Amino acid sequence: MRILPGPPYLVLTIIVAVALLFLRLDYLPLKFEEPRRALVSTEMIISGDYLTPTLNGRLYYNKPPLYNWVMAGCFQIFGFHHWVVRLPTVLSLIGMSILTFFGFRKKLGSDAALLATLFIVCCSEFLYIFSFLGEIDMFYSLLVYAQLLSIIHFFHVNRFKALFVVSYLLMAAGFLTKGLPSIAFQGISLLVIFIYFGNWRKLFLPSHFVAGFVGFGLIACYFLMYHQEQTVWPYLNRLIGESSRRTTQDDGIDYLFQLFRLPVMLLKICLPWSAIFAISWQWKRLIKLLHNPWVMSITLCLIANLIVYWISPGTRERYLYMFVPLSFICIAVYLSSSYREHLTYWLMIALGTLLSTAVLILGFVKLPVTIPEQMVVSLFFAALFVGITIICYSKKISAIFGVLLLLLALRGLFVFTVFPIRKQNFQALDYYQKVDQLLAYQQSATVYFYAPETIKTGKSFISNEEVVYKEISYLPFRFSYLYTIQSGTILAHVDKVKSGSIYLASLADLPTDVEVLDQFTLDRNRAYVVFQIGP
Length: 535
Fold this sequence. Notes:
Strand order of the largest sheet: 6-3-7-9-8
Order of helices and strands: HHEEHHHHHHHHHHHHHHHHHHEEEHEEEE
Number of strands: 9
């Protein structure tokens, strides 16, 4: 039995999967890191300065600018909408899937490549969590995945000039997105591939040195241009510091715990396909597949680059997203040739039963309390889960494809039931009203964000000198972003006040001898005050 159905059903499934990724993408307010990314990009557009990222008008050092350039481009094409903030994430997820299919269709077979493509879109971590978020990690994962893929592909077709040029350009793009890790991925991947396959002398080709010079030269050019506008050393120091904090901790127990924690994290991200792979595990079959040079190359890149995170207690799940496509290629190659169909059918039946039962309980117990009309939706999806399970089992459709259909149906349920509850409970829904309150004052004077600066010193990662940092307590980024796009001006930070202007500040930072004009609360019931210099 083929795992995947015929072309008409397969094309329909792909269309549904892509449509579900875009469904209600604009529905929920921005959260987590989304408004911060959006705010930096918006300030670039308003100021016209794309070299020096800012946040509330202050220099922003935490990330290089490439992702903000991409988001700024999306804003200028489509306008300032929540779905535009999330668009790079969805397009990056689709991009990783397309790269997987066309990158391995001829090398590993169409079935395995297409199966890996569907696994990427339909894994639990991406389908129900991260594809809704306009954060940097999926875009960065696409760049790193393309970087590793270019090394593997061009190596095995003996196109070493293209390998070095493309991979170093992608390394530069990755560095300008998230900093140092891209350099580590480049060095580790080149070494393990060239040394394992006995072509290490090719690393000394002139084209390697030229491509390396171009890649690092692009990075240097950006920072040299930045240095023409602002001093670059605090920026570089922060980028190096951010990377080192993620990969180091002082407690030796944390390192030991991480050795067990990371495999669990990766298996969790890859659910449910990692579970199907686990119940189908056969050592002999697995070793046989490693004789394929393409599979071996993917495995080498996966394991070698994972080692950096394996010994890093600060690793979070989203740091591993670039390894998910590599993992799914290995899983898909294995499952396309050998999997325990009987056990997978039982997994499909258990999943279908669990989902249908859970949605009925939610529909008749939980949802009527808050959203009564969702009962109809719950009944529909419960019937859909049962129907998919029965049809796949009775018609002997592949159990793996049946699980995939159940996951897509669950995505639809998620959007129509969980989203409304989240929106009702979201604390920031009244931000628009509070932004309007502040905008009313802009008609008579320029509005600023006031916060005193705290001077801190830290060790330089570039030299032995101490680095001085000026830190402030920021406004909630959702508020700053909404104010910026509605006013068309940057809500710039100042640390001194003068007459003739209006200021927004935390109540805890309110100066003495000022005239309070308004007061409201934002996240976590923190009080903020609108004021001006008193008469």
